[in-house]
Amino acid sequence: MLASEGHVILVVDDETAVRNVLGAMLTCLGYIPLLASGGAEGVDMLRAQEGGVAAAVLDVRMPGMDGPATMDALRQHAPDLPCVFVSGETGKYTVNELLARGASDVLGKPVAMDRLGHALAAAAGAVGF
Predict the structure, then answer these.
(1) If pLDDT is split at 50, 70 and 90, which confidence band does 6 have?
(2) Biggest alpha carbon–alpha carbon distance for the chain
(3) Which domains can be identified in the chain, with CATH numbers?
(4) Does position 10 have pLDDT exceeding 90, yes or no?
(5) How many CB atoms lie within 10 A of CB 76?
């Protein structure tokens, strides 16, 4: 049994193809992906899971609620939720700023599956999921 087996990971990315690839990677890593197309939808999905989400993988740049705002909103409901950012360009945020805001890791797109797995394993070790 994989250490990740059965853990739900919320993926929030406005690009359908990226969201689906991340979901497929998470499935291969033994996680259960929960896919959202934007920040508000991601927050609604997290609330509907009633504490069942182990971590979130978030795009930084999205229309409406961007990644950092999404992380803040998610943490209003799950204060210790590990959040890993995945982005082709961080826009107005530097990697150090995202880490200082509480991100578990910041990965560049395209992300390799093993790198995503390592980031989530590190986040799991930090919070014990």
Answers:
(1) confident
(2) 40
(3) 8-123 (3.40.50.2300)
(4) yes
(5) 11
